[in-house]
Amino acid sequence: MLNKSITFFTSLVTISFIILYACSNPGDSSGEKQAAYPATPDSSGFLKLANFLSNEDIDSVVDLDTQLKNGKTRKKGIIPVPQDGDDFRNAELDKIYWPDVSIIEGDFRGASMRTANCQNSVFDHSDFRVSDLRWTRFDNSSLKGCIFSQARLFHVHVNEANFEGSDFRGANMFGMEGHGTNMRNCDLTNALLKDAEFTYCDFSHTLGVNARLIRAVLSHSIFDSTNFSSCDFTGARLEGVRFFNANLENSNFQGSHLQGTDFNGANLKGCTFYGARLKNTNFKDALHIPRHIKKILVDGKASGIVPTQVK
Predict the structure, then answer these.
(1) The pLDDT value given to residue 310
(2) Which of 74, 193, 247, 251 is in Cβ range 3.0-4.6 Å of 87 for a Cys bridge?
(3) Dihedrals φ, ψ of 13, to 5°?
(4) pLDDT reported for residue 36
(5) CA–CA separation, 203 vs 60, rounded Å?
(6) Are 210 and 190 in contact (CB under 8 A)?
(7) How far is CA 132 from CA 15, 177, 236, in A?
(8) Strand 75-76 to strand 86-87: parallel, antiparallel, or no bridges (unpaired)?
């Protein structure tokens, strides 16, 4: 009798823990926890765009004392023989030829590295803050966990590169080209990506609040569980893009190309789509679908050009 009582009590406690866990860890019917998009940061903390930095702003970033992850101080880099952990702050590296090199945890703050060739190289966890990298090539390179905040990346080529976990806050990425590039878990807050080209890329779980993607070419890229709220996608090429469970609140899609785009589970509160071109564009299960889109939906999808005036 005692054994039965103990067994019943144990079972009751186990069930209680299961119920408590389920309530505190919501997931789908399969028991897998749902991935949430990144939280929206306070706009008062946005970094200003690279174009508007003064010399004093740049110096204040370059002069900050930083160390390697092991706590050691970086050694001054020697240009002909770059090594991991080198210090190249304020260095003149224009037209440098650095293919197939490894400079992990390098410090390039304030460096001028324009029209450089750095293809097939490894720069993981390097610091490129307030640097000038215009027209440089990083194709097929690894740049995981790098800091590019407030850097000038005008027409930089990064095709098939890996930027997972990198920081681009306030960066000027105008005309940047990165086809097939890994942009997962990045931070693009307040970045400028006008006329940039990132096709067949993975932006999953990336934060891109207030990014300007005017006329950007992002066809067939993945934006699952991202936060691109308050963004400007005016005239952007978004054919075949997937925005599963993305937060796009208050973003502007006017005149954009949305043929085959999928907004399943996306938050579209306050979005505008006037003049956008649609073809089998999927709005099924999207949240807060704007009235001017609801008017043209057929079985959750829409085709045609979104009228600029809705009766």
Answers:
(1) 52
(2) 74
(3) -65, -40
(4) 81
(5) 31
(6) yes
(7) 59, 16, 26
(8) parallel
Distance, in Å, from the CA atom of 259 to the CA atom of 240, rounded to the nearest integer, reads 6
pLDDT per position as a tens digit, 16-58: 433 333 333 333 333 344 458 999 999 999 999 999 999 999 9
Name the token pair of 37.
Answer: 């998009």
SS (H, E, C) the chain: CHHHHHHHHHHHHHHHHHHHHHHHCCECCCCCECCCCCCCCCHHHCCCCHHHCCHHHHHHHHCCCCCCCCCCCCEECCCCCCCCCEECCCCECCCCECCCCECCCCECCCCECCCCECCCCECCCCECCCCECCCCECCCCECCCCECCCCECCCCECCCCECCCCECCCCECCCCECCCCECCCCECCCCECCCCECCCCECCCCECCCCECCCCECCCCECCCCECCCCECCCCECCCCECCCCECCCCECCCCEEECCECCCCECCCCECCCCEEEEEECCCCECCCHHHHCCCECCEEEEECCCCCC
Residue spans of the chain under pLDDT 70: 1-35, 309-311
Do residues 128 and 146 make contact, with C-beta atoms less than 8 angstroms apart?
A: yes
Q: Check if the beta carbon of residue 232 is closer than 8 Å to that of residue 253.
A: no
Looking only at the bridges linking them, the beta strands covering 86-87 and 257-259 are unpaired
Residue 130 in contact with residue 112, Cβ under 8 Å? Answer: no
Structural tokens at position 79 = 């240009």
For 292, other C-beta atoms within 10 Å of its C-beta total 17
Give the pair of three-digit tokens for residue 165.
């976990």
Is 106 exposed, middle or buried (CB count within 10 Å of its CB: 0-12, 13-18, 19+)?
A: buried
User: Phi, psi (5° rounding) for residue 301?
Assistant: -125, 160
**pTM summary value:** 0.88
Q: How, if at all, do strands 301-305 and 277-282 pair?
A: antiparallel
